[in-house]
Design a protein that fits this description.
The chain has 651 residues and is an alpha/beta fold. It has a domain of 123 residues: GMP Synthetase, Chain A, domain 3. It contains 21 helices and 30 strands. Strands 5-4-17-16-18-19-20 form a 7-stranded mixed beta sheet, with helices on both faces. Strands 7-6-8-11-12 form a 5-stranded parallel beta sheet, with helices on both faces. Strands 21-22-24-25 form a 4-stranded antiparallel beta sheet. A hairpin with a 7-residue loop joins strand 14 and strand 15. The longest helix has 17 residues. The two termini are 20 Å apart. It binds 5'-O-[(S)-butoxy(hydroxy)phosphoryl]adenosine (WT7). The site of 5'-O-[(S)-butoxy(hydroxy)phosphoryl]adenosine has 21 residues, from helix 12, strand 20, strand 24 and strand 25.
């Protein structure tokens, strides 16, 4: 990819200001102490951190147990995650501190203190309890990022119920598949929410999903978030305000095992079916909390704005669990980034004195394109640290972010991690590292990564790329895939005989030990920081009655990082009347099947696809074509060479 090539040539380094270094949570000497401890006694390292950072009901004795790839952390200890995020703060003078500052698209600001959030969670927990839900039952959350969706997450955690947040941009069909995969009993949603000035009718989408058949669902709880009228099925649907107890009720937090599951979060893989990544309680919370402290340098007076939606892992770990476990203040905004104007983000930062800001390279590139005048209208002097996540950041965007947003005064943390890792794995320690734009730098204390070849040996030549693996288990690692043990082993462990966790990313390690992420090694693409499986999109396309075959590949895109090109072969008896029109229809179709984020940027039609004699589609060639590259490598196994000429003419 072009970005990667130019990234690797980057040599400029940036170091934190002395002022930043002096106040940093982690200083050079702290890092040295941590590393010495980890290197001599890794179990003791994690044991001490888990003891000091988390509040336990029953102390643990064991640290990391189990046989690879089924690890357990602090298994004989018990705790409650919501008590760690709420109860332990309301017992202190943090009780009147703002936990959540919610900025709506219309710029209505709602401040919720720890005490108020505690009450909201208790009152909603009492409502959930009335429905007879039991420990480890599943609840789906199909809501935007508002205080109430966070309330549901924490209420589930309080009762030991496993939540699964489904991004509210997913279609009814995607929602139905996720509900059925984990046999959820309850879905919680809103009537509607606003995005870019438009009403998005979430409850209608839920109705459609349930109409398609979700036998496990008993109830749909609806939070009234607007004045829109919705359909209401009396026996099934319940208004939030009808079950949440408003009378200062207290619901005792359930005593949960450290290893009980906290949530399932679906993500794309290299097959057509999304995987329900499962995370457990104590280990997950520990790495979330530590990275908020170490990487985001969170302090008591910070206002932390992570722009991620709670539908993604970033929202789970850096909007909800990590910052709240630390007793920090988070800002949430559930509107469009450029509404009503391209400087909305910068306006929010100034008006609310945001000090730590975390977003995705695709957002930075989008806002960068709108010009430097927009951020220059704002002071942005409350900011002291910036972060990025989701895809490699190109040096141009990094420098723009550094100059125009950070005013050359804020360290930037480029954080590499995954839904599966639960928390940041590779990221700079902002008060310590000098960084080069484009590298996520080094693994955090306690995390061991390597770049290996296909045999699992360390890649010797630093300029050569290889597979990025994690060599040792860590507390917030995924515990598996919901209901699919084999897929867990096959996807993440089997290739190297359960020795390493396979990230699916390719990377390069330079002479200084910095990691440069190059891309994915599987059929997963990264569009605007969202992970999508090419097979998933292909199966959506071929489910259209006029389509015979489809192959989906990605190509580099200026704003989105990667974009999707779908090659489509139509059925014999279907005559195309207007390619553009049908391409638009197919895009809508993908939106209905998966959601807007999966819509192909380009669709091209042909009478066949390049295939081997055994009928396997040669995606490599399609990738060359989509990227405007010369056809590389061997084409001798190609059965229908003439198809290449037809495809080359598509542009
Ligand atoms: C994939 C994980 C982790 C939250 C957001 C996405 C890519 C993530 C970086 C980064 C280069 C990155 C990787 C990874 N990725 N962060 N800082 N630099 N690439 O979570 O949907 O689970 O996707 O995103 O390819 O495997 P996700």
């Amino acid at each position: 990819m072009k970005n990667i090539e130019s990234n690797l040539k980057e040599k400029r380094t940036f170091k934190p200001s002395e002022k930043f270094v002096r106040q940093a949570n982690l200083k050079n000497e702290d890092l040295a102490t941590l590393l010495t401890k980890y290197n001599s006694e890794p179990d003791l390292f994690w044991k001490e951190l888990a003891n000091t950072e988390l509040t336990w009901i029953k102390k643990f004795n064991t640290v990391c147990t189990g046989t690879s790839p089924f690890f357990k952390w602090f298994e004989d200890g018990t705790l409650n995650v919501s008590a760690n995020c709420l109860d332990r703060h309301v017992e202190t003078d943090k009780k009147n501190k703002i936990a959540i500052k919610h900025v709506s698209e219309e710029n209505t600001i709602t401040n919720i203190t720890y005490n108020q959030l505690f009450s909201k969670v208790n009152s909603f927990s009492s409502g959930l309890k009335k429905l007879g839900l039991k420990k480890q039952d599943r609840v789906i959350i199909y809501m935007p990022t508002i205080p109430e969706s966070i309330t549901v997450m924490l209420s589930c955690a309080r009762l030991g119920i496993i939540h699964s947040v489904v991004f509210a941009g997913f279609s009814s069909e995607s929602l139905k598949d996720r509900i059925n995969d984990c046999s959820a009993k309850v879905v919680v949603t809103v009537d509607s929410f606003k995005r870019g000035g438009k009403s998005i009718r979430a409850k209608d989408t839920v109705d459609k999903a349930l109409d398609m058949g979700c036998p496990s669902i008993d109830h749909c709880i609806v939070y009234k978030n607007s004045s829109e009228k919705i359909n209401f099925t009396k026996s099934r649907d319940i208004w939030w305000h009808d079950i949440a107890d408003e009378n200062g009720v207290i619901v005792a937090p359930e005593e949960m095992s450290a290893e009980d599951l906290l949530f399932i979060l679906y993500t794309s893989g290299s097959t057509g079916k999304p995987k329900g990544i499962i995370h457990s309680s104590a280990g997950y919370l520990l790495n979330c909390l530590l990275t908020n402290k170490w990487v985001f340098d969170l302090k008591n007076d910070d206002i932390f704005w992570c722009t991620a939606d709670i539908g993604w892992i970033t929202g789970h770990s850096y909007v909800v669990y990590g910052p709240l476990a630390l007793g920090a203040t988070v800002l949430i905004y559930d509107g469009a980034p450029t509404y009503p104007g391209g400087d909305r983000f910068w306006k929010i930062i100034d008006e609310n004195k945001v000090s730590v800001f975390y977003t995705a390279p695709t957002a930075i590139r989008t806002l960068m394109k709108l010009g430097d005048e927009l951020p220059s209208k704002h002071k942005l002097d409350s900011l002291r640290l910036l972060g990025t996540v989701g895809e490699p950041i190109n040096p141009e965007a990094w420098i723009w972010y550094h100059k125009n947003i950070g005013k050359e005064n804020c360290p930037i943390v480029d954080t590499w991690w995954q839904t599966e890792t639960g928390a940041n794995m590779i990221a700079p320690l902002p008060g310590i590292y000098q960084v080069i734009p484009g590298t996520c730098t080094k693994p955090l204390p306690g995390i061991e990564v390597e770049v290996v070849d296909s045999e699992g040996n360390k890649v010797q030549n630093a300029s050569q790329g290889g597979n990025l693996v994690i060599k040792k288990p860590w507390p917030s690692m995924l515990r598996g895939i919901w209901g699919d043990k084999d897929r867990y082993i096959n996807t993440y462990w089997k290739k190297y005989d359960n020795k390493f966790y396979i990230t699916g990313d390719t990377a390069r390690k330079d002479e200084d030990g910095n990691i440069w992420i190059m891309g994915r090694s599987d059929d997963v693409v990264n569009v605007s920081g969202h992970r999508l499986g090419t097979m998933e999109i292909e199966s959506a396309i071929v489910s259209h009655e006029f389509v015979a075959e489809s192959a989906v590949v990605s190509y580099p895109h200026e704003i989105k990082g990667e974009a999707i090109h779908a090659f489509v072969v139509l059925r014999d008896n279907f005559k195309l009347h207007g390619e553009k029109q049908f391409a638009d229809e197919l895009r809508e179709w993908v939106k209905i099947k998966i959601g807007s984020i999966a819509k192909p940027e380009r669709i091209s039609f042909s009478t066949n696809l390049p295939k081997t004699r055994s009928g396997k589609i040669m995606r490599r060639l399609l990738r060359n074509i989509a990227r405007g590259e010369k056809i590389s490598g061997d084409t001798s196994t190609l059965e229908n060479e003439n198809i290449l000429n037809q495809l080359k003419d598509i542009f």
